[in-house]
Amino acid sequence: MDSKSRSSTCIAPINIAVIKYWGKSDEEQIIPLNDSISITLDTDYMYTKTTATISPEFTEDSIVLNNEQGSGDGVRFQNCLSEIRKLAALSKHASTIEKSTWKVAIVSENNFPTKAGLASSASGYACLVYTLAQLFELESHKSELSALARIGSGSACRSLFGGFVRWFHDSQPCIARPIAEAEHWPELHCLVAVVSNSSKSVGSTEGMKRSVETSKLLEHRIKHVVRDRIEEMKMAILEKNFEKFAEITMRDSNQFHAICLDTYPPLFYMNSTSQAIIQLVHRYNQIRKSVKVAYTFDAGPNAVLFLEQAEMSRFASVFYSFFGSTPHDQFFRGKVPNVTDAMEDAASLVPDKALKGQVQYTIVCNVGQGPKTIDPTG
Amino acid sequence: MDSKSRSSTCIAPINIAVIKYWGKSDEEQIIPLNDSISITLDTDYMYTKTTATISPEFTEDSIVLNNEQGSGDGVRFQNCLSEIRKLAALSKHASTIEKSTWKVAIVSENNFPTKAGLASSASGYACLVYTLAQLFELESHKSELSALARIGSGSACRSLFGGFVRWFHDSQPCIARPIAEAEHWPELHCLVAVVSNSSKSVGSTEGMKRSVETSKLLEHRIKHVVRDRIEEMKMAILEKNFEKFAEITMRDSNQFHAICLDTYPPLFYMNSTSQAIIQLVHRYNQIRKSVKVAYTFDAGPNAVLFLEQAEMSRFASVFYSFFGSTPHDQFFRGKVPNVTDAMEDAASLVPDKALKGQVQYTIVCNVGQGPKTIDPTG
User: Fold this and answer.
1) Closest partner residue to B221 among A217, A263, A265, by Cβ?
2) How far is A26 from A24, CA to CA, in rounded Å?
3) Do the beta carbons of residue B196 and residue B360 sit within 8 Å?
4) Phi/psi at A256 (nearest 5 deg)?
5) Closest Cα in chain A, distance from residue B258 (Å)
6) Where does the record place the Diphosphomevalonate decarboxylase-like N-terminal domain (chains A, B) (predicted)?
7) What pLDDT digit, counting tens, does each position of A258-282 carry?
8) Yes or no, beta carbons of A264 and B275 under 8 Å apart
9) How many CA atoms, within 13 angstroms, populate the side-chain half-sphere of residue A214?
């Protein structure tokens, strides 16, 4: 490669919305109809890794996604690239202005199964934008980068920040900003349950469009429910009030799926395993006489559970007794919890044999940081 | 039995709401928060049969339900009895006034499995009230009887009428009245799919109470959605506009279940089989390039499908190819449709092997008449 080419490798986290984004006011610019709040998960186990190279020798933009050659002319990818070049062209630095005209080669991969239904486009576009920003020396333009990631995939704008993040639907530009850093609530942990046999369903871009067009309840949610919830959720996070945080999280997940069901034809993202997980969480909380665990589901059947560190071993043991069909160090990945025989809780929470194997595996992690540059050889 | 005793045997139909009732403004009087519209199904296959006997010799009220002795002191049963006695006591006929003080013996049974989740309390209380009305010579008090049945079980007030029935939430008294007779739309047929392995869930009395208390969307549904739908549905019925009727029916069923999901903790009445039926109906309509079939689900996983007679054989054949695991004359009961090999439609609607057996059986019937007296020996 010629001496003028530059390369950078970065990783970016996934984020999980606890107040859901569902519905756009502008399809092309990806402006959401309501604010949302998300939690960034640590990159110890799940992340997108992107290597970007720019060179005056390249004749076209190219992209390799998860080892598959893409043409580089996807609309969203090109929109993203074109906007970041515009930003670079406005730079005070001659070198950045020069580089803004070079073509790029992108190699990007997720270290978690894309098909598992985890939000790979959020970490993917956040990583793309962040990596290109390193090459164009635009790292300091945090807000603009969030807006650029948004054009690639709405929720990607939240993955540019660590910790607890709010995406504003009416800010100029439309961007996300942190509510609190990851270190604010270190006790908060996350258990991602990857559900087996998830079938294909309507993609979220098409799904939310259909909801906006047909649901008679969505507008009410946006205008009269989410606004208060955003403020309550922000307070719950700032106060580290787990019970309040958990209840709002569960209610908002359920309402999002209610909107999907009120869509015509209806959208089903949760399946019978998702239902079983919801019911287990409510029964567990009932037995614990306090809200100890919260669930949330995006546009797919996988559950994301939040709980504090002190509850992890106890809950993980019960969860494993219901769903585990592999040795516990295979069933749990990431920060593998200590698992006991869960007899005490299982006495009143009788596992249904039919549920064994319905959760393929789980990933246990912390709240984490935003994107970062890594050593490409590492 | 002494010569003064009187006995009457009647049957009453079940009814299926196409605009759903969910939520009360008065728990004791069972006043609904919104109007609903239902269709009364014929009693050729499904009905409640009740024999009531009154006698001055009886020392207490008694009831036998589906061959199980009840104590006769259930609150709703006693409320119903007490109100009908009040009505009888106001009669101009000395004989009715006298009989209003006699105790009653009730024997009631459903000829369809109660556990199948079909609305047995609606036909049950409609039949109880109608049968007692024969004995007390109150048959002509149609409105009062509808109100009396309502006190037993809300939707029972609709089963006192045949055809297409509207229950008014703000009439005085709170009663149902017909929109159109059964003969108005003889082409309209109904296929009830009894889903296998339906698990226990929260009862509808408790469920709707929880929705009223916790759902952030229910009030909007009641105030801003149902009102228009009631008028649209009434017009669709009067015009026999199947497509319009079908779309409103499906949208309202979905919205009712969306409210259940927005309830906290959420209520799940549909299961994966229900979802599969919904998806099949939408795909079938898509292929037929017109809305030929509608689904609706009450507080349970069983599907009630509406379609016109001309479509029955074609749809039944496809439905059977997906769900049938017994010979077709066992799978279909009631007005057994002609079943072909469904190859034409099945080419683009590939049955999923896993669905076989998930529907236990189906009942095919017409729109039918209200309660009637029958020969008890028949």
Assistant:
1) A217
2) 5
3) yes
4) -60, -45
5) 4
6) 12-171
7) 999 999 999 999 999 999 999 999 9
8) no
9) 22
- The three-point CA angle B29-B34-B38 to 5° equals 95
Q: Are A182 and A162 in contact (CB under 8 A)?
A: yes
- Provide the pairing of β-strand B6-12 with B15-19: unpaired
Percentage of chain B lying above the pLDDT 90 cut: 81
Cβ–Cβ < 8 Å for B230, B19: yes
pLDDT tens readout for residues B173-211: 999 999 999 999 999 999 999 998 777 788 999 999 999
Taking a C-beta distance cutoff of 8 angstroms, is the pair A158, A36 a contact? Answer: yes
Closest listed residue to residue A144, CA positions, set A90, A201, A213, A63:
A90
Contact B264 A258 (CB under 8 A): no
* B233-291 residue pLDDT tens: 999 999 999 999 999 999 999 999 999 999 999 999 999 999 999 999 999 999 999 99
Point out the least confidently predicted range of A73-77, A173-177, B76-80, B114-118.
B114-118
Domains and CATH numbers, chain B: 6-185 (3.30.230.10), 188-366 (3.30.70.890)
DSSP of A213-240: HH-SSHHHIIIIIIHHHHHHHHHHHHTT
C-alpha separations of B84 from B70, B88, B128 in Å: 20, 6, 10
- Name the E strands within A241-302: 293-297
ipTM above 0.90, yes or no: yes
Chain B: give the shortest CA distance to residue A156, in Å: 27
Q: Which of A210, A218, A232, A255 to mutate to test the interface with B (most CBs of B within 10 A)?
A: A255
